[in-house]
Amino acid sequence: MQVGAHMSMRELPADQLCESWRLMQPSSAVLFTTENEDGTFNVAPFSWVRPASQSPPMITASLLRTPRKQRSLENIERTQQFVVSVPGLDMAESVAACCQKVPEHISKLGVAGLATGPSKCATPPRISGARAHLECEAAQLVDTGDHCLVIARVLAGAYDETFFTPSLVLRPDRSLPCMHLEQYNRADSQVHLFLECSAIRLVEVPYLVPIAELQAAHDTF
C-alpha cells in the first residue's frame, strides 16, 4: 500500500477555500517591531513569514491590508524597515498579548511586558529574550488580495548560541519553537493554541535512488 493510501479525504467546498491556509498550520510565530510615525515603536505577532532567497538573503511576510490595514504594514510602507524577533515557546504569553487591541497612546511592548535592545542596522529595536533576530528592509510590496506580500532583504541577523547549533539549527532540547496552531475568540478574550513538543524524527535516504527501486516503483503503476 502506498503512503497515504488509507487516508479518507474530504474536499473543501468553494465557500471554505478562504480558510484553506489552516491546513498548512501550525506555523512559527514571530514578532515584528516597526517605527511609528511619532518615533515610538510598535510590536505585532505574525506567522505568515517565510524565507524567499538564500543569496541574496530575503524573506517574505504577508500582512493584512484590508478591511483594516495593520499598523505594522503602515509603518513598513513609510520607513521600509522592520525587525523580526524569533521567540521560543517560553514567550508564548507575550506573543499572544501582542494581539490585544490597545489605545494609540499605549505601547504594546509595555502591555506584553517586553523589553528591547538596539538593532545593528535598522531603527526598530530587537525584542529582548527572543532566540534570534533578523533586521530587514522592504524591497517590494505586492498586493495579493486582502493581504500585502512584503518582500524584504535581510540586512543583519543574530542568534543565541545556547539555542542553535553553529549551522543555525534549533536545539529543541533547550528551547521549544513557538508554533502557533489556532486562535479563536470568546466573549471577552482571545484564545491562542501553541504546540508543545520536543520530539525529533530522523529520516535518512540515499542521494540517488537505486535502479532496482526505480524499477519496482515503475512496476507499481
Topology:
Elements (H helix, E strand, L loop, with lengths): L26 E2 L1 E6 L5 E6 L2 E5 L4 E7 L6 H9 L1 E6 L5 H6 L10 H4 L4 E2 L8 E2 L4 E12 L3 E13 L19 E7 L4 E6 L15 H10 L1
Antiparallel strand pairs: 1-11, 2-3, 2-6, 4-5, 5-10, 6-9, 7-8, 9-10, 11-12
Describe this protein with a few key phrases.
221 residues; Pnp Oxidase, Chain A; three-stranded antiparallel β-sheet
Molecular structure report:
The structure is a single chain. The radius of gyration is 20 Å and the shape is globular. The mean pLDDT is 94. It has one domain (25-220): Pnp Oxidase, Chain A. It has 221 residues and is mostly beta strands. The chain is built from four helices and twelve strands. It has helices at residues 71-79, 92-97, 108-111, 211-220, and strands at 27-28, 30-35, 41-46, 49-53, 58-64, 81-86, 116-117, 126-127, 132-143, 147-159, 179-185, 190-195. It starts with 26 loop residues before the first strand and ends with a helix. The strands form three sheets. Strands 3-2-6-9-10-5-4 form a seven-stranded antiparallel sheet, with helices on one face. The protein has a three-stranded antiparallel sheet with strand order 1-11-12, with no helix packed on it. A two-stranded antiparallel ribbon has the order 7-8.
CATH class label: Mainly Beta
Terminal residue distance: 12 Å
Query: What's the helix-strand series?
Result: EEEEEHEHHEEEEEEH
What is the name of the CATH superfamily?
Electron Transport, Fmn-binding Protein, Chain A
Under the CATH scheme, the architecture is Roll
Instruction: Kindly estimate the percentage of residues that lie in beta strands according to DSSP.
Output: 25-35%
**Poorly predicted runs:** none
